Amino acid sequence: MLLSATRFLVIAITVTVASAAQTQNEPEVVSPLGVKFYSLPDEKSVVAEAEKKLAADPKNIDLIIALGRAQATVWRYRDAIATYTRGIGMDPSNAMLYRHRGHRYITTRQFDKAVADMETAAKLNDKDFDIWYHLGLAYNLKGRFEDAAAAYEKAYAVSEKDDSRIAASDWLYMSYRRAGDKAKAARALERIKPDMKVEENKSYFDRLMLYKGLKKETDILNDKLTDLEIATVGYGIANWYLYNGDKAKAKELFQKITSGKYWPAFGFIAAETELTRIK
Q1: What residues contact 245, with CB distance under 8 A and at least 6 apart?
Q2: Do 170 and 207 meet the contact criterion of CB atoms below 8 Å apart?
Q3: φ and ψ at 89, to 5 degrees?
Q4: Does residue 19 register a pLDDT over 80?
Q5: % of the chain at pLDDT higher than 70
Q6: DSSP annotation of 160
Q7: What are the contacts of 104-107 at 24+ separation with CB within 8 A?
Q8: DSSP conformational letter for 142
Q9: Across residues 158-169, what is the average pLDDT?
Q10: Of 193, 210, 213, whose CA–CA distance to 253 is shortest?
């Protein structure tokens, strides 16, 4: 009997390892440009720890969200979507579950699903900055620039600190410009002051300073930046060229961004989307 149980355990472990290896070889995303993107190894066991905590309290929504976020740190976005879907099945009126899943639908380039989730989240909670911010992004990626601007206005309205206002204003300005409304874009820019308190969103703030004419492209975009910073700063500058009529320069920057490695970045996803539109 002991031998049989041991053999069963060995077989189970072998199947689990083989399954994990197979999953690892499957791309998280195949981009609209046909490029395959993959997850990262869980070297610090953040996912394993989150799974362990959830196993001890499987109906805890906070722990479900924590697991989804842990999975996202190693770019296992398909798993994160499944985790949030599990949570929604348990608590279908929880706005944060839709917000987090919608975010990961954006990351995996499923924009229609992202819009649906973020719209649901906004109906459940219309006071949350992140919900409006990500809804604006989902609309933007769909080319619904007027809807995006309306969502970013809501995000700005519920912002409680300069960092959030900076992030919302940057995308708000771009959305108005892409919608062809220069007057509203200018008014959005007027709210941004050089002495605002910037803690996390320096790249967005630098882009806004460029739009205001207070910084030059060479001041904020250089080869010393990380792939994430290039995606963030570069996308704003590329958009600047696009709605000011220099499509060739915009395309060049979009291509520079998508040649980097930080494929989950919003700027990367947006640049990729713009390249498909240009084609």
Answers
A1: none
A2: yes
A3: -60, -30
A4: no
A5: 91
A6: -
A7: 104/68, 104/72, 104/77, 104/80, 105/81, 105/138, 106/134, 106/137, 106/138, 106/141, 106/266, 106/269, 107/29, 107/72, 107/77, 107/264, 107/269
A8: T
A9: 96
A10: 210
Q: What is the pTM of this model?
A: 0.89
At 11 the three-state DSSP class reads helix
Chain segment 193-240, per-residue pLDDT in tens: 999 999 999 999 999 999 999 999 999 998 889 999 999 999 999 999
Give the tens place of pLDDT for each residue, 169-198.
999 999 999 999 999 999 999 999 999 999
φ and ψ of 37, to 5 deg: -120, 145
Whole-angstrom CA distances from 57 to 53, 62, 144, 184, 272 are 7, 10, 41, 49, 40
CB 266 within 8 A of CB 104: no
Reading the block at residue 157, the tokens are 């309205």
The count of other CB atoms within 10 Å of the CB of residue 254 is: 27
* H or E element at residue 158: none
Using DSSP's 3-state secondary structure scheme, residue 36 falls into strand
Residue among 167, 165, 166, 187 at smallest CA distance from 176: 187
Structural domains for the chain: 45-110 (1.25.40.10), 126-210 (1.25.40.10), 221-279 (1.20.58)
CA-CA distances (angstroms) from residue 86 to 91, 142, 191? 9, 27, 41
> What is residue 252's predicted lDDT score, i.e. its pLDDT?
96
For 85, other C-beta atoms within 10 Å of its C-beta total 13
Nearby residues of 261 by Cβ (< 8 Å), 6 or more positions away: 227
Task: Answer whether 275's CB lies under 8 Å from 147's CB.
Answer: no
Q: With the C-alpha atoms ordered 9, 15, 20, 21, is the resulting torsion angle positive or negative?
A: positive
Lowest-confidence pick of 19-28, 112-121, 215-224 = 19-28
